[in-house]
Amino acid sequence: MSNFSLDSESFDHGGIIPKKYGYKNGNHSIPLKIGGVPENTISLALIMDDPDAMDVVGKIWVHWVLWNIEPNVIELKENSIPSNCFEGETDFGEVGYGGPAPPDKEHTYIFKLYALDKKLDINKKSTKKQLEKAMNNHIIAETKLEGRYSP
């Protein structure tokens, strides 16, 4: 087993995501720290979504998709992405990070990080669905970080 992990200096797992990372409050992407990447990893992919949106909009709301992150990357700096990786389209209809924006009450946001055995050859601006299809049968390990955000 690996110690594959995803953390943030801005909030603890299950903790409160600071307001400045919200879609309507600055929309700065959250700094993330990556640890314990499995040895045979060729690339990493990240998906941030909001499963609590299902009750409000009838689907899990996608906030960020990022892929072809080099396996030696140990952090994603605030409001920045590593070079040579790609961001896809969110459910806001935009490419890049779309911060938390719960319309009703506190929601839980899940950051899922995947270690993959290949680089993905998918269209820039792909969606979560296209990313998940491309990752199918190529996931070596996965880890997640959860945070909460209130309107």
How many helices does DSSP assign? Answer: 2
Find the CATH topology.
Answer: Phosphatidylethanolamine-binding Protein
- The chain-level mean pLDDT equals 96
Cα end-to-end separation:
38 Å
Overall body shape: globular
The biggest sheet amounts to: 6 strands, mixed
CATH homologous superfamily title: PEBP-like
* Oligomeric category: single chain
How would you spell out the order of helices and strands? Answer: EEEEHEEEEHE
Indicate the low-confidence ranges by residue numbers. none
Q: Give me the Rg, rounded.
A: 14 Å
Strand pairing plus helix content: what structural class? mainly beta
User: Helical percent range?
Assistant: under 10%
Trace the largest sheet across and list its strands: 2-9-8-4-5-7
The tally of strands reads 9
Task: Describe the structure in your own words.
- There is one protein chain.
- The protein is mainly beta and 151 residues long.
- The chain has helices spanning 54-57, 128-135, and strands at 5-7, 15-16, 32-35, 43-50, 61-69, 75-76, 86-87, 107-116, 139-149.
- The termini are far apart.
